[in-house]
Amino acid sequence: MGVLDLHADIKVRIDGALVNTTVGRIVFNELLPPKLRFMDRVIDDKELGKVVRECYRHYGSARTVQLVDDLKELGFRYATIAGITISMADMDVPKARRAEIIARTETEVQKIKRQLRQGSDQPRRALRQRLPPLEPGRGRGIAGDSH
Asked: Contact at 8 Å (CB) between 38 and 29?
C-alpha cells in the first residue's frame, strides 16, 4: 500500500456528498470544531486569523485556545517531517524595534522577579487573569501555583 502526499487529490464523502479535496485539507479540517468544517480552500495566515475569530465567536476562549494549540502542534509535526526550520533570522523585526522590545521585556522580567522575591503574589494573579482555566491532564501550570 502506498503513501499519499498531503497535496494529493482525493475524493472523500463529506455529509453524504462526494468532494474533491486533498489529504492536507482533510487533516486540517479534523482539527476544526463542527460548526467550522469543511473548509476546502487554501488557508493562508489571513484566512487562519478568520478561522480563529470564528472559533472564538461560536465556541469561546477555551475551545479557541485548544484549536490554536492543535494547529501549532500540527504545523510543527509537519514542519519536522519536511525538515523545515525557523530561526530568529526568519523573523521580520526591524533592528531598532528589536532592541526596544528586548529592553522593555528585560525590564518587565526584572520587575516580576523583584516582586516574587519580595513575596508578592501579584505576578501570579495577573498571569491567572490572562490565561484560560487549565484542563486536567494538560501538564501545564504556573510555577509555584497550587491550583
From this structure: yes
Please say whether the beta carbons of 24 and 18 come within 8 A: no
Residue 17, classed as helix, strand or coil, is strand
Cα→Cα distances 16→24, 42, 57, 139, Å: 20, 23, 27, 39
For the chain, the first-to-last Cα distance in angstroms comes to: 49
CA angle 117, 120, 126 (to 5 degrees): 120
pLDDT in tens, 18-77: 888 888 888 888 888 888 888 888 888 888 899 999 999 998 888 998 889 888 888 878
Positive or negative: CA dihedral 57, 60, 43, 94: positive
Single-letter amino acid code for the residue at 51: V
Helix (H, G, I), strand (E, B) or coil at 145: coil
Grid coordinates representing 134 are 487549565
The values of phi and psi at residue 126, to 5°, are -65, -40
Give Cα 27 distance to the centre of its chain.
Answer: 16
Contacts of 63 (CB under 8 A, 6+ apart): 33, 55
Structure-block grid coordinates of residue 21:
479535496
